[in-house]
Design a protein that fits this description.
3 domains, 6-stranded antiparallel barrel, Thrombin, subunit H, 6-stranded antiparallel beta barrel, 312 residues, mainly beta, 6 helices, 15% helix, Pdz3 Domain
Length: 312
């Protein structure tokens, strides 16, 4: 490009988002039992709260954040939620103006997104791509505990080690996801920012933890068969990809391949439909689930348990 030549519209969008978000995304360093960890975090309140991944802070109680302008300060871990892979920390010193949190429920496949983080120790790195898929589930293992991160955003924006905890933003610079994993070449995953995760963030800020119900399903959204769609009006449902061994879902008789149609009397068309039911009030209470199996409607009753380090 010739010096002084105006940027094309795509470049204008990406560079504008980069200017807005780079100062608000910090590099994170923590020390824990396994050694030193690193990642990114996003300032999201004016009084020093930052959002990052639970796996970035691990079991640490505190650490250091450094911003693009050279400002550095210590922080205290306020709370972590391994199921969503989200953590809230609070800086002990001054932080920049907060980023604006958006709503990932408005995303569509093919939409432009921009990732801002600190990969490989390189502060303020920016990559761009599109939303490749929505509603993914990401199973994770921590010791003996098996967890499933639901409703993950898949993007082809390049992510590398150190991007975890950084921002995934839309074209208006609103943070719609927190980058969480590199799932392969050209494939990155981000925790969505939506009504469910806002509830999680609020609980972490208030209580330092989230009491979560655990069901034990890994699902993917799929279209409802045309014959059933005509009867119920439901367009999408959740295909069960995996049932965690020994989980409430397994004990209830759910199987891989089941098409999950309703839970607690309401339709489930995306992972968030099920995830928003999995909070404190669901623990130990019967949950009616209807699935389509081999062409027949099957009703089962599952009883979610509280998610703990022993939940399987």
């Amino acid at each position: 490009m010739v010096s002084g030549e105006p940027l094309d519209s795509y470049s204008q969008i990406v560079s504008r988002v980069a200017r807005e978000l780079t100062p608000r995304v910090a590099a994170v360093r923590v020390r824990h039992r396994r050694g030193e960890g690193a990642g990114s975090a996003v300032a999201f309140t004016a009084d020093g709260f930052l959002l990052t991944n639970a796996h970035v802070v691990g079991g640490a109680r505190d650490g250091q954040v450094a911003f693009a302008d050279g400002t550095a300060t210590s922080f205290t871990v306020v709370g972590t939620d391994p199921l969503s892979d989200l953590a809230v920390v609070r800086a002990d010193g001054p932080t920049p103006e907060p980023a604006e949190l958006g709503d990932s429920d408005g995303l569509v496949v093919g939409q432009l997104v921009v990732a801002v983080g600190n990969p490989l120790g390189l502060a303020g790195s920016v990559t761009a791509g599109v939303v490749s898929a929505l509603g993914r589930s990401l199973p994770t293992v921590s010791g003996s505990a098996v967890r499933v991160i639901e409703d993950v955003i898949q993007t082809d924006a390049a992510l590398n080690p150190g991007n975890s905890g950084g921002a995934l933003a839309d074209a208006r610079g609103r943070v719609v996801g927190i980058n969480t994993a590199v799932a392969g070449v050209g494939l990155g995953l981000a925790v969505p920012i939506n009504a469910t995760t806002q509830r999680i963030i609020g609980a972490l800020m208030r209580d330092g933890r989230v009491r979560r119900a655990f069901l034990g399903l890994v699902t993917n959204p799929v279209p409802v068969p045309a014959s059933l769609r005509a009867k119920t009006g439901q367009q999408e449902a959740l295909r069960v990809a995996e049932v965690v061994s020994g989980s409430p879902a397994a004990r209830a008789g759910l199987r891989p391949g089941d098409l999950l149609l309703t839970a607690a009397g309401g339709p489930v068309s995306v992972a968030q439909s099920l995830q928003r039911l999995m909070f404190e009030e669901a623990i130990g209470r019967p949950l009616q689930i209807t699935v389509l199996r081999n062409g027949a409607m099957v009703d089962v009753i599952a009883e979610p348990v509280e998610l703990t380090s022993d939940a399987r």
